[in-house]
C-alpha cells in the first residue's frame, strides 16, 4: 500500500461498529469532497487497508472485535504514512493520551459537530502534507550537502595531487636539465657521420618528450591566469573537429561516428582558446579510447542556468553557463574509474587492456577549474557515459541565456526575525526584489511597529514575513494573530526552520497564506510573497 495524494480527492477510511455513526460521518465527509470507505470492525478495516490506498483513517476507540488502540498500533506498524484520528463516545484524558502516544494525529469525542470533524480532518491532512514536504526537503538538503561535500573532497584531492605533481616536476627538471644539455653537446661532438649519432639523437628526443611531460606536470600543479578573450564554444569545437589532430584521432578509431548538435546563439565564454581546445582534444581522446567497440559519439552545446553549480568533480558559483556535453556508447565507468578519472597517470582497464590516462584528463580538470567551471559525469539509464563540462558565460551575455519568473514587487513588507544575520540577509533579498522593507527583531516590537503604521493614514504594511521562532514570548503565530485582530485579512507568510506542525497548522487556520522552510532562496521567497499578495 502507498500513501495517497491529491487535494479534494483524498481518501478516508471510517472504522466504527455503529452503523448510524459510520454512515453519518461518511455522508458528511463525502459532502466535503472526500472519498470515503467504511468498515464495521477492526479486522475488516485492516483488510481494506491492505488492499486499497488511504490518506487518513477515522477509528472508533471501542469496536466489536478489536480494541481501537490495537487497530491504531497495527496501522502505524504496517502503514506508518497513514494518519489516524481516534473517535469515541467514552472520552477520557487517559484514552486521549494513550491514542496520541500510540501515534494518533487527533482525538475527537462523540457526539461531534460535522463541520468540526471535517475541519479537524482537513487540518490533520494539511499538517501531514506539510510534514512530508519538510521531511522531503530535509532529505533533499542532506543529499545536496553530501554531494557538495563529496565534490569538494575530490577537488581537494586533485589540488593535493597537483601540488605534488608540480613539486615533483621541479625536482625532475633539475635532474633532466644536464641530460638535455649533454645530449645536445654529445651530438655536436660526434659529428653527423659518427655511428653513435643515432643513439645521441634518441637520447635527445627522449629528453625533449620528458621535458614536455614535466611542463604538463607543472601546469597541473599551478593555477594559471590565462589571457582573457571571448571564446565561441561552438566555433572552438568545430575548429578542433576539422583539425589534423582530430583527423588522426578518427583514423585511429574508424568505428566511431561523430555527431554534433550545437546550441543557437550561445553566449561567449571568457578564457583561453588554446587551453580549451587542448582540453576538448584530451577529453575526446580519452572517450574514444574507451569506445573500443565503436559506436556513435554525440557532442552537444547549450546554455544553462545553474542555481546550484555542483558537479561530481567540482563546485562553482551559481550563474549562467555554456555547457559542452559528450555522450558515448562505451561501458559505464566503474566507481573506481569515476573516483580516480582525473588523477595523473591513472591506469584503467578497457575490454581487458590496461590504459593509462597519462596527464590528458588531469589537464582537462585543471583548465576547466582555472576557467571557473566544473565537470560532471554520470551513466544514463539508456547506457554509456555522459560527460558534461560547464564554463561560465560572459557576464555581458548572461541576461540573454535564461528568463526567470518575475517575483518583483513594490509593496511594503514587515520582516520579523530575531536573528540579526538572517534579518539582514532576508532584507537584502527583499530589496533586490524591489520591495520596501520594515524590520523588527522580536514579536512585541513587530506588533508595536504594525500598530504605529496603521495609525498613519497614508501608509500600510502590505505583507508580513514572520519567523515562527522569535526571541521573546511571542512566537510568529502569536504575532500574526495580533496583526489579524488589528487588520483583518492582513496577508502574511510564515518562515520556519523547525517542523512545529501544530503551530504551523494553527497559523494556517487563522489566515497565514504561505509557509516556507528556512533557509530559503530568493526565488522561493519571491514566489511565496507574490502568491500571498496576489490572492
Index terms:
alpha/beta; disordered N terminus; five-stranded mixed β-sheet
Verbal overview:
This protein has 535 residues and is of the alpha/beta class. 48% of the residues lie in helices and 20% in strands. The protein is built from 16 helices and 21 strands. The chain has a 5-stranded parallel β-sheet, with helices on both faces. The chain has a 5-stranded mixed β-sheet with strand order 7-9-12-16-15, with helices on one face. It has a 5-stranded parallel β-sheet with strand order 18-17-19-20-21, sandwiched between helices. A hairpin with a 2-residue loop joins strand 10 (310-311) and strand 11 (314-315). Helix 2 (42-51) runs parallel beside helix 3 (68-78), helix 9 (273-290) packs across helix 11 and helix 13 runs parallel beside helix 14 (476-486). The longest helix has 77 residues, at 114-190. It is elongated, with a radius of gyration of 34 Å. Residues 1-8 and 397-404 have low confidence and may be disordered.
Please write out the topology.
Layout: E1 11-15, H1 19-31, E2 35-39, H2 42-51, E3 56-60, H3 68-78, E4 83-88, H4 93-101, E5 106-109, H5 114-190, H6 197-221, E6 229-231, H7 233-241, H8 244-252, E7 256-261, E8 269-271, H9 273-290, E9 295-306, E10 310-311, E11 314-315, E12 319-327, H10 335-340, E13 347-350, E14 353-356, H11 360-370, E15 374-378, E16 386-392, E17 412-416, H12 420-432, E18 436-440, H13 443-454, E19 463-467, H14 476-486, E20 492-496, H15 501-509, E21 514-517, H16 522-533
Parallel strand pairs: 1-2, 1-3, 3-4, 4-5, 7-9, 17-18, 17-19, 19-20, 20-21
Antiparallel strand pairs: 6-8, 9-12, 10-11, 12-16, 13-14, 15-16
Helix pairs in contact: 2-3, 5-6, 5-15, 9-11, 13-14, 14-15
Amino acid at each position: 500500500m502507498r500513501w495517497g495524494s491529491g487535494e479534494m480527492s483524498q481518501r478516508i477510511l471510517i472504522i466504527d461498529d455503529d452503523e448510524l455513526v459510520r454512515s453519518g460521518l461518511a455522508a458528511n465527509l463525502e459532502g466535503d469532497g472526500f472519498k470515503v470507505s467504511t468498515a464495521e470492525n477492526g479486522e475488516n478495516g485492516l483488510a481494506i487497508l491492505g488492499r486499497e490506498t488511504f490518506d487518513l483513517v477515522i477509528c472508533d476507540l471501542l469496536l466489536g472485535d478489536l480494541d481501537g488502540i490495537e487497530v491504531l498500533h497495527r496501522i502505524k506498524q504496517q502503514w506508518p504514512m497513514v494518519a489516524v484520528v481516534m473517535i469515541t463516545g467514552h472520552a477520557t484524558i487517559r484514552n486521549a493520551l494513550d491514542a496520541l502516544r500510540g501515534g494518533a494525529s487527533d482525538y475527537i469525542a462523540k457526539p461531534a459537530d460535522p463541520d468540526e470533524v471535517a475541519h479537524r480532518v482537513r487540518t490533520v491532512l494539511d499538517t501531514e502534507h506539510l510534514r512530508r514536504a519538510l521531511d522531503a526537503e530535509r532529505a533533499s538538503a542532506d543529499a545536496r550537502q553530501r554531494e557538495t561535500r563529496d565534490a569538494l573532497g575530490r577537488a581537494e584531492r586533485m589540488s593535493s595531487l597537483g601540488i605534488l605533481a608540480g613539486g615533483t616536476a621541479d625536482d625532475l627538471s633539475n635532474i633532466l636539465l644536464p641530460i638535455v644539455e649533454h645530449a645536445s653537446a654529445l651530438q655536436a661532438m660526434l659529428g653527423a657521420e659518427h655511428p653513435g649519432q643515432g643513439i645521441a639523437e634518441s637520447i635527445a628526443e627522449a629528453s625533449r618528450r620528458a621535458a614536455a611531460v614535466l611542463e604538463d606536470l607543472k601546469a597541473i600543479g599551478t593555477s594559471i591566469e590565462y589571457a582573457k578573450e571571448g571564446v565561441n564554444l561552438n566555433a572552438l569545437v568545430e575548429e578542433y573537429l576539422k583539425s589534423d589532430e582530430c583527423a588522426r584521432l578518427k583514423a585511429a578509431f574508424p568505428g566511431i561516428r561523430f555527431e554534433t548538435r550545437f546550441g543557437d546563439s550561445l553566449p561567449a565564454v571568457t578564457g583561453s582558446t588554446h587551453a580549451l581546445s587542448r582540453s576538448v582534444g584530451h577529453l575526446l581522446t580519452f572517450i574514444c579510447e574507451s569506445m573500443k567497440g565503436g559506436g556513435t559519439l554525440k557532442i552537444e552545446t547549450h546554455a544553462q542556468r545553474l542555481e546550484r553549480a555542483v558537479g561530481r568533480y567540482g563546485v562553482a558559483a551559481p550563474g549562467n553557463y555554456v555547457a559542452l556535453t559528450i555522450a558515448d556508447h562505451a561501458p559505464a565507468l566503474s566507481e573506481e574509474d569515476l573516483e580516480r578519472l582525473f588523477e595523473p597517470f591513472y591506469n584503467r582497464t578497457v575490454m581487458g587492456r590496461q590504459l593509462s590516462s597519462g596527464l590528458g584528463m588531469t589537464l582537462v580538470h585543471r583548465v576547466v577549474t582555472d576557467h571557473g567551471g566544473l565537470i560532471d559525469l554520470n551513466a544514463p539509464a539508456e547506457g554509456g557515459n555522459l560527460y558534461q563540462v560547464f564554463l561560465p558565460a560572459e557576464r555581458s551575455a548572461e541576461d540573454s541565456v535564461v528568463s526567470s519568473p518575475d517575483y518583483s514587487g513594490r509593496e511594503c513588507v514587515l520582516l520579523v526575525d530575531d536573528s540579526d544575520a538572517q534579518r539582514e540577509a532576508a532584507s537584502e533579498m527583499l530589496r533586490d526584489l524591489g520591495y520596501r522593507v520594515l524590520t523588527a527583531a522580536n514579536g512585541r516590537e513587530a506588533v508595536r511597529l504594525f500598530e504605529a503604521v496603521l495609525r498613519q493614514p497614508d501608509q500600510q504594511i502590505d505583507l508580513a514575513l514572520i519567523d515562527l521562532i522569535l526571541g521573546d514570548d511571542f512566537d510568529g503565530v502569536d504575532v500574526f494573530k495580533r496583526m489579524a485582530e488589528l487588520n483583518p485579512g492582513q496577508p502574511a507568510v510564515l518562515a520556519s526552520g523547525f517542523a512545529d506542525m501544530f503551530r504551523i497548522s494553527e497559523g494556517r487556520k487563522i489566515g497565514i497564506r504561505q509557509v516556507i522552510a528556512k533557509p530559503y532562496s530568493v526565488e522561493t521567497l519571491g514566489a511565496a510573497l507574490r502568491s500571498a499578495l496576489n490572492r
